[in-house]
Amino acid sequence: MSGNSGKNPVPVDTNGITPFQQMLASCSGALLTSLFVTPLDVVKIRLQAQKSPFPKGKCFVYCNGLMDHTCVCTNGNSKAWYKAPGHFNGTLDAFIKIVRREGIKSLWSGLPPTLIMAVPATVIYFTCYDQLRAALRVRMGSHAEEAPLLAGALARVGSVTVISPLELIRTKMQSQRSSYRELSEVIHSAVRNEGWRSLWRGWGPTLLRDVPFSAMYWYNYEKGKAWLCKHNNIREPTFAITFISGAVSGSVSILAVLSGQLKLDPVLLTQLCCHVSAVSSKASSSTLSVMIKIVAENGVGGLFVGFLPRVIKVAPACAIMISCYEFGKAFFRKHNQERLLTSTT
Fold first, then answer.
1. Is 282 or 273 the better-scoring residue by pLDDT?
2. Which of the ends of the chain has fewer CB neighbours closer than 10 A, N or C?
3. Alpha carbon of 233 to those of 29, 133, 175, 312: distances in Å?
4. Could you tell me which residues are beta bridge partners of residue 71?
């Protein structure tokens, strides 16, 4: 006998899940991505430190698979995780020796503080993308297939705009070991002298790097996923399909973007962010001035430092993140459908 049992159905959007469920799916994907990708960057940084030791005040880029962070060396001793002693003969040798001498936990050194920024940024980015794509598909009519392109770009602009000031503050605290009160005074001073725009230093080059990649990534991902589903005669993508689509799309997009523009990360972003670690500086910190300085000191090749490591990390990071995210969405979608059926019987 059919009837309403009195239970309220789950309020869902056009994607079949709620925005909160999208956030949970992206959060779980972000954590898993970080767990898998971070060891690669820890080993890379340790190899860099072995080749060229980090002095006090030196900046280096740390990636947890979700976003890049500028880290500042705060002391001259060897107690910091990135200065731990050891001689490595390559990536595999470094993995083995680090685990053997320092324990497996050391492969995730430096991860917790970076997740404070990375997880919220990823949640904002993925949730906004799905919401924007659904809305744009309705409004773009015959051009609905291009919705992922625009949605990806807008979602990235939004997440970068929200996170940039927080990342700048994190770098400032790390470089000067400032208390929250001292940091507040420094921020107020910067805003008073340079205006609110000073809190978004590095925003420009970050957008130049991330927005084109994001637009191309989502467009290629949606196309690749749809083609694989059609090729395999299935309506819903499997975990393997989303994993392959994410890896291929990430690789193609990063190669296309980096071959069509100057390599803005990590060198330029590091220089811009490290500018805030100085107590006072009269030098210009504009993107153009920093680029000119890098070319003058290291040549044009200095703008392309870190090209290969970034390409290598992008494919697994994109594959893990998107497949976990899609798996989470599929789980919640099925859960909502079951609850809806239960509420109508």
1. 273
2. N
3. 27, 24, 55, 32
4. 60
Coil, strand or helix at 266: coil
Is omega for the bond preceding 266 within 30 degrees of 0, making it cis?
yes
pLDDT, tens digit, 9 for 90 and up, residues 296-314:
766 655 555 555 666 777 8
DSSP 172-235: HHHHHT--HHHHHHHHHHHHHHH-GGGGGTTHHHHHHHHHHHHHHHHHHHHHHHHHHHHHTT-S
Q: Which amino acid is at 261?
A: Q
Picking from 169, 170, 226, the residue whose alpha carbon sits closest to that of residue 198 is 169
Q: Is the peptide bond before 53 cis (omega within 30 degrees of 0)?
A: no
Beta bridge partners of 69: 62
Distance CA 80, CA 26 (A): 31
- How many Cβ atoms from other residues are within 10 Å of residue 213's Cβ? 22
> Which of 81, 75, 79, 151 is CA-nearest to residue 114?
81
Mean of per-residue pLDDT scores for the chain: 77
CA distances from 137 to 82, 133, 151, 224 (A): 46, 6, 10, 18
CB 315 within 8 A of CB 247: yes
DSSP state of 60: E
What distances in angstroms separate CA 126 from CA 36, 311, 321, one per listed residue?
Answer: 19, 21, 10
Q: How many CB atoms lie within 10 A of CB 258?
A: 20
Tell me how far apart the alpha carbons of residues 18 and 68 are, in angstroms, rounded to a whole number.
Answer: 29
What is 126-164 written as a DSSP string? Answer: HHHHHHHHHHHHHHSGGGGGGHHHHHHHHHHHHHHHHHH
- Rounded distance, CA 248 to CA 245, Å? 5
**What are the backbone dihedrals phi and psi of residue 69, each rounded to the nearest 5 degrees, phi first?**
-125, 140
pLDDT, one tens digit per residue, over 184-236 is: 776 777 677 777 777 777 787 778 878 999 999 999 999 999 999 999 999 88
